[in-house]
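Chain X:
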Amino acid sequence: MFYKALDGVKVVEFGNLVTGPFCAKILADFGAEVIKIEEPCCGDVSRKEEPFYKDVPGIENSGLFQYVNMNKLGITLNPETATGKEIFVQLLKGADIFVENNPPKRMKELGLDYKFVKEINPRIVMTSITPFGQTGPYKDYKGGELVATHLGGVGYLSTREGDATKEPLKYPAHLFSFQAGLCAASATLGSLYRQKLTGEGMQLDVSEQESVIQNVNSAIARYSYMKQISRRTDVLDLAPHHILPCKDGYIYASFVEEHQWRRFVEVMGHPEWADNELFANAQIRSQYWDALKPLMLEWTMQYTVEDIYRRSQEKGIPLGAVRNAEQVLEDKQMKARDFFVDVERKGEGKLTFPGVPYRFSEIQREAPTAAPLLGQNNEEIYCGRLGYSKRDLTRLKEAGVI
């Protein structure tokens, strides 16, 4: 854990990949006890996702799984068996929160939909995250981040350079699945507060598609206000508002206000072309970006990212360095705040992961724990808390229950 802000809160997680597990991870990072339930045979689907430790595939080697499941306890359980369902019910009876990201049909088939869960634990908060939500014509459609991203309108904005008629690109990694998990966690915390005040539970219906749409930035507003559809093109209505190459990398220049552009002209040494009427303001510069861009590149390609970034910061110009993963890991700001954390992983030594982007002034930060091995905490949970013997565990394993 990182902080014991939710010390005493008990969470059961039954999910795969990113949305549900990341929601539960955020709660675990706040100090809640999260028991992650995985299928006995192969565990969370993310165990098969790269990157793998030392590039060796294996259910204990996935970097994605390791990050999304830090600070959790892990057990194996098959709720499709009668005994497995009974055990699942025992766990839910003692939980404050139940996080899952399974298809609504599957939860109903398992007898673990909210109607049933509410009967066994009226005060539980059940957070259900799906591609399209629990209602509507899409509710039973299969989907994932790629589907939600494009049905949410973001895919149409996924390139800036080149031909706007080209196919959209996938955004990197699981960007919007993480976003949906974050949305779910914030709503869960609000529901937990209500639970503490009233003693009542509820189901949170979280749609990954809606989370994408919520974060499309100004694209929806542009159409709502102006009937303008933002397209995948390098020609915007403001310029410079682009990523530009430098001697050793890239910068992102975004000059919304005219004085910012004029200050950058000073940084460039006030070249003669900057006074050309074709570049008089941001809108005109956008129209003639094809003429302005090579002139700017002639200057940017002479300097390093750090040179341009430092000069711009001194002038108060909103210009950023585009950094790769190695540069982010070595960033002096991150080091000053001890953002990245080393986690001891059994048999692998210390692995480095992102920490949390917040600090509590009155709560001491705790060291995080590694993601559980498949079934790592079976004995602790089943024997130590639910009263099963070690012999029982052997029988349950032979029967395919755990």
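Chain Y:
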Amino acid sequence: MSTFRAACVQLRSTDDVAENIRVTSDLIRAAHAKGARFIATPENTTLMAPDGGAKLERSFAEADDPALLAFCTLAEELGIWLLIGSLAIKVSESKTANRSFLIGPDGRIAARYDKIHLFDVQLPSGEKYRESNTVAGGGQAVTADLPWGRIGLTICYDLRFPQLYRALAKAGSFLLTVPSAFTETTGKAHWHTLLRARAIENGAFVVAPAQGGHHANGRRTYGHSLIVAPWGEVLAEAGTEPGVIVADIDPALSADARARVPNLEHDRPFSGP
């Protein structure tokens, strides 16, 4: 349960997979140089396509994905735990999975998580998203054990479903990952509040790397990658530019927060309404 340094890599990904791999790898190296042993990248790390059709054209099956091979090799080279927030993994001719990969310092995939909650929304700004048109939703909550304790994996829109985080916390997760590509509109309104709420109500660290800025496909993402402590303090925050933030994580602070407010032990079944 020793203290370790975690990092969020913030990106402004494009539809050029090779360039995104290069930029992401450079920033992972920069995070490692700052002493990070657990490094997380955002949702859509290697592909922000202009539409669902373009995403399918540029996606690969897991066994053929060049990014996954590159990141596994890099994790082994640096001896780090690396969470690739998500890649678009082709699972059929018409659908991808929005899949997180946790890669160990041996270069092997330690866990996979497919985004459960898909972003089908029309915002007051006129922005319209139908993720389910081209993405197959997952159905399994996922935890993984690191040297410092257990973590729970989620992606972006999952953040609005607190029952998922409660289940991960009750399964022993002291840290929750939320790689995201929040829209500028929803990010300004809700990003900080929701992330701090998930940390506080579960007594858990939250590591939330984000996409940020104006992408070539016209989409605007909010940025502001965050690392939040179990008591709700923001330990590190990015702006809107690509880069790296780091924070030192003491897993004992999660146990301390849960002892001070033992709400995870106080869930009770109820009927109605």
